[in-house]
């Protein structure tokens, strides 16, 4: 599997974009170790979304993910955090999940007006900790 940007670099870029300083070398080391272990246990992991022909925002992908989470019986118990309205927010909501967006964009029009939007992960964390994040 080839990537335009290696996954460990992408994780570091995203983390730093949201105000977190990460050690890229440690992420790479942890990623490789965990990926190798994952591939030993689930050799078809990398082929699954292609095999299922599902990817975000297809609600079936969210349903499949939900089935893999122990103890979760309905989508309302799930929260998807993403940065793309169509792929992340709409896909999750259509699957019955709760969803929030992390973006620095502030000039939103419909249909974004009812979307829970945070500028970074720290703001989301603070909203959760202070019980200011509620879902119906």
From TrEMBL:
InterPro entries: HAD-like_hydrolase_domain, HAD-like_sf, HAD-SF_hydro_IA, HAD-SF_hydro_IA_REG-2-like_cap, HAD_sf
Xref: Gene3D superfamilies: HAD superfamily/HAD-like (3.40.50.1000), Haloacid dehalogenase-like hydrolase (1.10.150.720)
One Pfam family, short name: Hydrolase_like
Transmembrane segments: none
Coiled-coil portions: none
Cellular component GO terms, alphabetical: nucleus
Stated name of the protein: Haloacid dehalogenase
UniProt organism field: Danaus plexippus plexippus
Taxonomic placement: Eukaryota, Metazoa, Ecdysozoa, Arthropoda, Hexapoda
């Amino acid at each position: 599997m080839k990537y335009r940007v290696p996954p460990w670099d992408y994780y570091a870029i995203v983390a730093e974009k949201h105000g977190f300083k990460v050690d890229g070398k440690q992420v790479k080391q942890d990623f490789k170790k965990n990926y190798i272990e994952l591939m030993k246990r689930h050799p078809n992991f990398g082929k699954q979304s292609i095999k299922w022909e599902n990817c975000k925002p297809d609600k079936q992908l969210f349903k499949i993910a939900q089935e893999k989470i122990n103890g979760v019986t309905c989508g309302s118990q799930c929260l998807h955090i993403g940065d793309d309205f169509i792929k992340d927010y709409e896909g999750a909501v259509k699957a019955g999940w709760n969803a929030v967006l992390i973006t620095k964009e502030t000039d939103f029009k419909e249909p974004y007006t009812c979307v829970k939007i945070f500028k970074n992960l720290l703001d989301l964390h603070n909203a959760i900790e202070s019980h200011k994040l509620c879902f119906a």
